[in-house]
Each structure stands twice: as C-alpha cells, then as structure tokens.
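My current task is to audit a protein record that another person submitted. I have pasted the whole thing underneath without changing anything:
***
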Amino acid sequence: MDTSSAHHDHVDPAVDAFSRSTSSPFADGYDLDAERAVLAHLIAEDDPDPADPLFGRYQLFLEREDALNHMRETHALRQGSDSLVRPHEAQEISRIGQLGSDGADRMRLHTRDAMRLFLGRSIAPGEQGHPMAGGRRVAASLRALWSLSGNDNPYADWKLIEIAERIAGIRRANELEQQRARQLLDAAREKGLEYSVLQSREPAQVSLGFGSPYGYMIVMLLVELDYLVRLVRSAVLRDLMSSTEGFRRIGSARHRCLSVFHFAVHCQRVLTRAELLPLSRVDFLPNADTAARQRVEAARALLGVLPRDVFTGAREPRHSRRRVSRLSDAELRLLDSVRLSGDDAVAEAAAAALVP
C-alpha cells in the first residue's frame, strides 16, 4: 500500500493555498489583507461553517492574524529597535526627557545702544508717544509665529521667512560696516598706532533662556550690532572717522534693527488675534466653510497675497514647527490649484468684519 499517497490525500490544502505578497511580514509571503478579502464571508459570520471549502484557510488566517498581532506587540515593546535589542534596554528610550537649557546662556553687551534695543522703550504714564519694540519682545513675537507654523498656518511661515531674510540682510550690512571700521583701524596699526577696541568696564550680562531658535537669531543681531558700535566709536576716538559720520553709521544700524523689530511685532499681533488664530492651509481649499474663507480674506487684506511657493511648502522658514510628510502628487496639484488672490474689496470687507 502506498502510504505516502494516502498521507498526501489528507494534507489540508490551506497549508499552501493562500495569497502571497513580497511585502508580507511572514517568511512564506502570507498576504493577510488579500486573504481577508477572500475569506470575508467566513470572517463576517459569528459561527463559520466547518464544511465550507475555505474553512481551512480561514483557520490559518486566524492563526496568522494572531501571529501578526504578537509581532506588533513585540515590536512596540522593543520601541521599534533591532531584534537583537532586549525589551528592557529598548524601554530606556521612553525615559529620556526633552533636551533643555540649564539657563546658563547669557548675552554680554558693552554699549547702551545695543542694550536699549534689547530692552525696548515703553511710553511713560501720562505721556504720549510711540513705544519701541525691544529684542525681548521681538523674540516672544517670533516664538508665537513659530508656534503658529505648527498649526500649518501659511501666513506664519511666510512672515517667518520674510523676517529671517530681513535679519540676514541687516547682519550682512552690519558686517560691511564692521569691515570698514576695522580697515581704518588696521591701516592705522600698520602705521604704528597700537589700539584696542573699546569695551565697557562693566558690560551688561543678560540671561537668555529663549525657547525658540528665533530668540537666538535676535541675540546674534544684537551682539553684532554691539560690536559694530564699539568698532565705530573706536575709530572716532582715534580720529579715523568724524563724530558726525560715526553717529550716522550707528544711527543707521539701529534703525535697520528697529525696522525689522516693529515688522515682526506687527505680524505677530495680526496673526494671533482670536479671529485669525485658527487660520491654516485647510482654510484655502475650495470646500472650506464661510468662516474659513473670511479668515483667508482678512489675512490677505492685512498682510498681503501669500506667495504660492510658501503656500505649497516649496519655500519654508529657516525654523518651523510644521510637521508634514512628503505630499503626494495629487495633494501638490490641489495646493497648486488653490486661488491665493482675490477681490480687494471682498478682502477689505472681510478684514473689517472679522478684525475690527
């Protein structure tokens, strides 16, 4: 008697009769999703019929589903680490806290010009005038815009880009001014004048602890302006530059800083108004509701037409809290088709109604 053929007749066909996929987590390529579709009628029943021709495949499906769940639990327990890593080792990653500063960051300023720019100036009680935005306030404004970028707010992205570009331009201009003053001083040194750059006997030590990289962008702007003032006054003291020219150069540098300071505060005040706070890219889509369309029109009236490359994410801020995975071609086409400009009268009316 041929026992091998008899044994073959009793082998459950479900052992090999199943769908396979190259992306399967199983070594034999078992395709759980494809099998779920094939066995849908058995899965839907509370008490599947054992006489069903696919019942064997159904039992295998249940086994593989349990096996996959176990694999996922093990993977999660190991925090997604390599299989050689033991679970208790992998758990250490969840115990690591966020990176933080010990509060030791400080800014040293030697000039009152730079320190006043950091402090700003408020209006004295009972007097009239215009306040001056200072570096501390500007850093807070930029942090607010940075936070809004995490809400997928395209106007926050745009203004962060603009402000960072303006600050970069100011720093380049200040660097050129520094170079000119250094050239005058170095030329005098070549002729025999020994000198040192002026510095304060008691410079201000300012504790920082900013919570965003934009705060430190302002810090670098101020310490470089502080150094520029020291260089210019060093040149004036050595009669390498007239007092009038020195005053003009320092004044121009201060005004450049104040210009971007007030622009940053203005943008933050507009975008953090309660009426505009929910603004996001979703508001621009064709199916957006009336409130969303009003937010878009108001923002456009108050801040201008949003550049398309910023809206689509092709141009991004230097630092952003926006976390978006790579967009599909269809999503990019949708964003690219959104109308960003509109009727000025409608925009102004929306701004007047939404932001009194």
About this structure: Residues 1-11, 349-353 have pLDDT under 50 and may be disordered. The longest strand covers residues 106-109. Residues 106-271 form one domain. The chain has three domains: 14-95, 106-271, 281-354.
